[in-house]
Amino acid sequence: MTPGVIDNSLEGDVAKACINHKDAPAATMCHQCHVPVCRSCTTLTPHGSFCSSECSIQHREFGEKLRSGEAKAAGGGLALKLFLGLLVLVGALATIHVAARRGIRPAARIDLIGFLLQKVGGLAPGPTR
User: For the chain, what are the domain ranges?
Assistant: First the structure.
């Protein structure tokens, strides 16, 4: 869609009515809050069509934050950091378990996976070759 031009092709089979004027058909959707608005309620800017000046300002400010790198996903990558940390932990535990199964005594003392398998599955401890 070209900014500053009213879009007459609304999605859906049913024509939507303006959020402010229920008897007026919507001419476009607000670029910020996505409500249908008629021609008289549409605020046209270089950034698109909006239902109000407040939505226009919010859209512009968010775009500026996005370009400057301020706007990040919620958590700022915390989920990715937690996942990678968990992956490293599981890898370390697996490495210790393999070393313990090969008969390396220091690893056998801290083999958490072997301990859990022994408790849950009744497996015999000790190295296997």
Answer: 1-71, 78-121
